[in-house]
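Project outcomes to date are best conveyed with an example. Our students and postdoctoral researchers have been running inverse folding experiments weekly, and each run begins with a structure described purely in tokens. The record below, which covers 394 residues, was selected by the lab manager from last quarter's runs and is presented without edits.
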């Protein structure tokens, strides 16, 4: 059994053999993965040692103290937080060995081809079709939307309908799609921030070999649920310390600009500060639970709280600044590599946070999940549950 002392020794041996000061970033990250110190809870040979998930913090602390480089997790968050755990859970051994190492190293960026123009909140109603040919290759045609990082991605996790005669949740299959293949077209979607962080993706006769199918045919919804639960923990579960995230710039402005303060604003700030701290501690508790299992529906509640708090905190920051809060730093059309809430101005935070209640599952959908799967309340009546997808009104 690998314990904390063993992991410290392994990490120090890695640092001694590959000193961060004299080793290239790529070389160090590769050595770390091969030493099993990337994801310590993953199997040996796949970046881990089969250790307890909670012991990852031991490795991270040693590496941070030594000034070791990280793999730029914000840039590759979809791969780390969504694709990797799904591939680990459902992938073949060949798929795991092909995809996990370059994913963790950041050599291959991933995106998520789930939502569609007519299937956002009701994701299982998706209409992108995948048809298996006699040559063992699937032909995929359809459109996806709100795709973060599609303009950067080499690979995508994709769900498509493979059996329209089945009810909508049963006729879906999960694929790994090469974004460089013919028939994949990525178009930018310019947002209220001025940037095009999201994209729409058109798939026209894209050929995906059956070896890039993840899970069984027709069981893609079950596979996708693993992705979605990990996604919500990834989005809502901040790993920062006290007064981190969106509350940090607001609290800093409050301390540095006493002339802006009023009693009413103070009461609202204290309330939001406490709620942000409660959310942070709840996220920490959820991560500790993850150390002994897989994410469950509780992550939906965390992501729900994340969206609400971000919008309320950014709104209070703009209100506190008055006329200054109406200024905006830069409307230049860009296609950024990551979302940087704290590195931009209050206007950006206010506008960008509006998307938090949509991306990663709308707040309305998450409320249903919390009500039904966490609180055990009766489910909403659904008349389309056992109806073939092809017979549904659209």
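After processing, the design step wrote out the following sequence:
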């Amino acid at each position: 059994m690998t314990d904390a002392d063993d992991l410290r020794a392994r990490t120090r041996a890695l640092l001694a053999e590959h000193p961060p000061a004299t080793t290239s970033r790529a070389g160090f990250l590769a050595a770390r993965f091969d030493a099993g110190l990337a994801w310590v809870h993953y199997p040996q040979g796949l970046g881990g040692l089969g250790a307890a998930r909670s012991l990852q913090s031991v490795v991270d602390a040693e590496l941070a103290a030594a000034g070791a480089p990280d793999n730029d997790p914000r840039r590759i968050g979809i791969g780390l937080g969504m694709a990797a755990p799904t591939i680990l859970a459902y992938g073949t051994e060949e798929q795991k060995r092909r995809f996990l190492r370059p994913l963790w190293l950041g050599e291959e960026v991933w995106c998520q081809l789930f939502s569609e123009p007519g299937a956002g909140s009701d994701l299982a109603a998706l209409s992108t079709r995948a048809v298996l040919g006699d040559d063992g290759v699937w032909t995929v045609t359809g459109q996806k939307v709100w795709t973060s990082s599609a303009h950067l991605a080499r690979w995508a996790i994709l769900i498509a309908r493979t059996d329209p005669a089945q009810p909508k949740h049963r006729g879906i299959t999960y694929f790994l799609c090469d974004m460089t293949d013919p028939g994949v077209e990525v178009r930018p979607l310019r947002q209220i921030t001025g940037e095009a962080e999201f994209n729409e993706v058109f798939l026209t006769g894209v050929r995906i070999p059956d070896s890039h199918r993840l899970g069984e045919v027709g069981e893609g919804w079950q596979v996708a649920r693993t992705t979605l639960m990990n996604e919500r923990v990834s989005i809502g579960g901040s790993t920062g310390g006290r007064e981190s995230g969106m509350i940090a710039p607001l609290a800093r402005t409050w301390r540095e600009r006493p002339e802006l303060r009023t009693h009413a604003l103070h009461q609202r700030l204290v309330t939001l500060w406490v709620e942000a701290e409660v959310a942070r501690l709840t996220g920490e508790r959820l991560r500790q639970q993850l150390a002994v299992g897989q994410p469950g529906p509780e992550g939906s509640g965390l992501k729900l709280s994340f969206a609400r708090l971000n919008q309320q905190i950014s709104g209070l920051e703009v209100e506190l600044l008055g006329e200054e809060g109406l200024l905006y730093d830069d409307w230049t059309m860009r296609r950024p590599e990551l979302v940087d809430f704290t590195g931009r101005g209050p206007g950006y935070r206010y506008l960008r946070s509006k998307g938090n209640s949509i991306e990663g599952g709308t707040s309305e959908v998450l409320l249903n999940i919390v009500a039904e799967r966490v609180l055990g309340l009766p489910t909403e009546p659904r008349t389309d549950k056992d109806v073939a997808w092809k017979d549904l009104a659209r």
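The longest helix spans residues 263-290. DSSP finds eleven helices and eight strands in the chain. The training component of this project remains on track.
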